[in-house]
Amino acid sequence: MSILNKVLGGIKPLDNEAQVKTAERLDSLIKPIGSLGKLESLAIQIAGITGEVLNKTDKKCMVVMAADNGVVEEGVSSAPQDITAIQTINMMNGLTAISVLSKQAKSDLKVVDIGICHDISHEKLISRKIRMGTGNIAKGPAMDRAEAIQGIEVGIDIVQDLHKEGYNLIGTGEMGIGNTSTSSAILIALTGATLEAAVGMGAGLSPEAFEKKKEVIGRAIEINKPDKADPIDVLAKVGGLDIAGLVGCFLGASYYRIPIVIDGVISAVAALLAYKLNPLTREYMIPSHSSLEPSYRLIMKEMNLEPNLYLNMRLGEGTGCPLMFQIIDASMAILKDMATFQEMSMNNDFLIDIR
Ligand SMILES: Cc1cc2ncn([C@H]3O[C@H](COP(=O)(O)O)[C@@H](O)[C@H]3O)c2cc1C
Ligand SMILES: O=C(O)c1cccnc1
């Protein structure tokens, strides 16, 4: 059996008993019932993921998948393709937004070259290049089906390593000029969303270039005819290797029962593909911020998920995740360290459950 099929078939539902026990503990803490809102639902979700009431999220890792996208030759991005390689190196040198925010959140950062169209080397780089960038989706498929599966399996493999190393919280990031175009194309292919609703300005575009971007994405759908019922076909035809790697991260985290945080649109589209491959994966995902890219809200709606942070961010790289890590840490601390009514010899019968 292929690794992908093994993982898809091995994802189990959350542990209901651990969730019930966690909810009971939360209700026993010295506070009105339900009053810590999402700090409570996060604790319940993470208990369901690990099967334990009390959990540590002290070993965190951001995984950044970096790859190039052939569609940039159509002029859909404000930045030249070389920025993918340059910014990937900057990440490992601690200079980018994701480097700074990861460090601040006490998270490790692992950067994977899964398809950058330059040969780069760095002592910190995880080299898992599948090909030197994808094909231009406005002219043909991004990659073939075997490459898409290979990309997903790279993500699974990285998470397997993280699991072995004892990581207990994962965040998903990417670097790939042009990947807001591939993300929009995937979303349209999967959901039938309109170009108007699903295409945004990405890293920034002139009004003329924005019109061109919509036309190019429309052409990519028309030419490739991705099969909505087959998420891997969609990924191979109009996606990218960065997204493939992230799909693998979501599948791997669900398989190994590690909570995994979603960043902006690219990470969210990868989450959506994983969800379409196996809907149970959604239970393992934790959204972070609400990206300003318009497609973000459509993706969340499709998965019935709600972002936790509203920060007017639209960068990508994974930047929402380390911010969310800190909220998750707060949730773990509440569950572990707050006193119970019983410990305080107080009576909580007067509390009305208004959840
Ligand atoms: C300097 C720079 C740093 C970035 N860091 C993340 N992105 C973000 O922008 C890219 C997607 O936008 P588009 O589809 O418009 O090319 C991705 O690399 C994403 O991570 C960046 C973009 C730039 C220019
Ligand atoms: O929200 C994102 O993920 C995003 C937005 C613009 C450009 N790159 C990424």
From TrEMBL:
Belongs to the CobT family. PANTHER family: NICOTINATE-NUCLEOTIDE--DIMETHYLBENZIMIDAZOLE PHOSPHORIBOSYLTRANSFERASE. Catalyzes the synthesis of alpha-ribazole-5'-phosphate from nicotinate mononucleotide (NAMN) and 5,6-dimethylbenzimidazole (DMB). The keyword Transferase applies. Keywords: Cobalamin biosynthesis, Glycosyltransferase, Transferase. HAMAP family: CobT. It holds the Pfam family DBI_PRT. GO terms for molecular function: nicotinate-nucleotide-dimethylbenzimidazole phosphoribosyltransferase activity. It comes from Alkaliphilus serpentinus. It catalyses: 5,6-dimethylbenzimidazole + nicotinate beta-D-ribonucleotide = alpha-ribazole 5'-phosphate + nicotinate + H(+). The active site is at E317. GO terms for biological process: cobalamin biosynthetic process. The lineage of its organism: Bacteria, Bacillati, Bacillota, Clostridia, Peptostreptococcales. This is Nicotinate-nucleotide--dimethylbenzimidazole phosphoribosyltransferase. Its EC number is 2.4.2.21. Signal peptide: none annotated. Pathway: Nucleoside biosynthesis; alpha-ribazole biosynthesis; alpha-ribazole from 5,6-dimethylbenzimidazole: step 1/2.
